[in-house]
Here is the input.
Amino acid sequence: MQDPLAFVIAIAHIAAALALLNGVTTTFGQAKICSQAIESMARQPEAADSIRSTMFVGLAMAETSGIYGLLIAIVMLFANPLVNTMISHLG
Amino acid sequence: MNLEVNNLWVINVFGREIWITETIFNTWIIMAVLIILAVIIRVKLRSFKTVPQGFQNLAEAAVEIFDNFAKNTVGDHLSYIAPWFFMVFVFLLTSCLFSVFGLRAPTADWATTFAFSLGTFIIMIFMGLKHRKGNYLKSFFEPNVILFPINLIGEVAKPISLSFRLFGNMLSGTILLTLYYSLTPLFVQIGIPAVLHAIFDVAFGALQTYIFVIISFMYIRGAAE
Here is the structure.
């Protein structure tokens, strides 16, 4: 290990990429919500308005996990506490 | 490339530094615009007629549509909180649309969204105590006393998730547009960003504002019923 700081930064970048991988599962969840909503809208067109508003709320709820991943990635890249600790530790 | 919230001035108040950031300055601009609009409506209110026309029609339609939306989502007996959320809706929508002008949207700063979700949180607790009194406090200990810490974490997570949702959406739009502006040559920066602005600022901003208000209503309804 030549440079511990470079190692920490490299690991932080890999961790950010891994945090963004939860977009896969978030997208699957949102796709399921959308397909179910379209199915029920086709079955009951008169209830389309209430189904649409419920669908948007559900989509927003499912999107939260994706947003958390994004925020964790941003913290890893721009405001990583480990890097500051490392810098102060190394002097 | 500039993703951070810039600091414009530092003023000293009683030996304490107060940072006037870009967010605060942009919020002041929005506040000024909204206050002037409100004063104009208040002055024009004297000359309002029974049959609305023109400007009066617009103002009345906005309030009426939001009132009906509140009544449908939160119920008739709780719809007296609609004015506060009308203000939240108008303010958040204006701040999301603010980045269309190339300035940083105040909602792309966690402080702004967290302030508003903290307002929702306080209203939620207040409405729960007002409408259900002891039953609201008892609901923390259900179904068992052992689950009290988990219920408490669930309540505290509500304003945090509510604020992160709006903040993350607006921040992702800001990041993508900053990347686009800083990585592309000058001749593609005319015209094409309009589409990106339409998607990330106007569409996502309006949708997330709507969702912020509707989820606040759902939390309040859940606490008060």
